[in-house]
């Protein structure tokens, strides 16, 4: 079966675009797992609680479909969270208690196409600290606070969604262009 010139040209353009994209990448930035920053750095990226007139136009306040409450269901967790304060007021010796995180806000910056969503979590620590955690996630995810950290789980197949988001429009464009 003879190879048409147009097919060869399309393949050459795809390979050239791939190689050009790979060569244009900057060196990966250095990321540290845990850093200590001034409180202003965390507060400036946290969502504002004051809703302005413009915010009311841009966003819709969505009420929950259902709220479930278990009275006294978290009593032991509240006592655990408040324990460092209680111990510091009653004990004069140095006692180390693992701080507990109380999640205060969650912000998600949705990515387009194959990119990763930027998820910003901010919370209070029971020892008086303020903690922020950044995640780059794809697809659906779950989060749970465990002691002084957040456990975030995402689907193992989340990369497949990114591939589909890229492949479907590409295939449609090639079909419409008569290449396939």
Topology:
Elements (H helix, E strand, L loop, with lengths): L4 H19 L15 H7 L7 H6 L16 H16 L10 E9 L7 E9 L4 E8 L3 E6 L2 E6 L3 H19 L4
Antiparallel strand pairs: 1-2, 2-3, 4-5
Oligomeric composition of the shown chains: single chain
Uncertain spans, ≥5 residues at pLDDT below 50?
none
SSE succession:
HHHHEEEEEH
What is the overall pLDDT average? 80
% residues in beta strands: 15-25%
Radius of gyration: 25 Å
Cα(first) to Cα(last) distance is 16 Å
Helix count equals 5
Number of strands: 5
Walk me through this protein's architecture.
The protein is elongated, with a radius of gyration of 25 Å. The protein is of the alpha+beta class. The chain has a 3-stranded antiparallel β-sheet with strand order 1-2-3, with no helix packed on it. Strands 4-5 form a two-stranded antiparallel ribbon. 37% of the residues lie in helices and 21% in strands. Strand 2 (117-125) and strand 3 form a beta hairpin. The two termini are 16 Å apart. The protein has a domain at 35-48 and 75-155.
In short:
By secondary structure, the protein is of the alpha+beta class.
Descriptive tags:
3-stranded antiparallel β-sheet, two-stranded antiparallel ribbon, 180 residues, elongated, 21% strand, single chain, alpha+beta
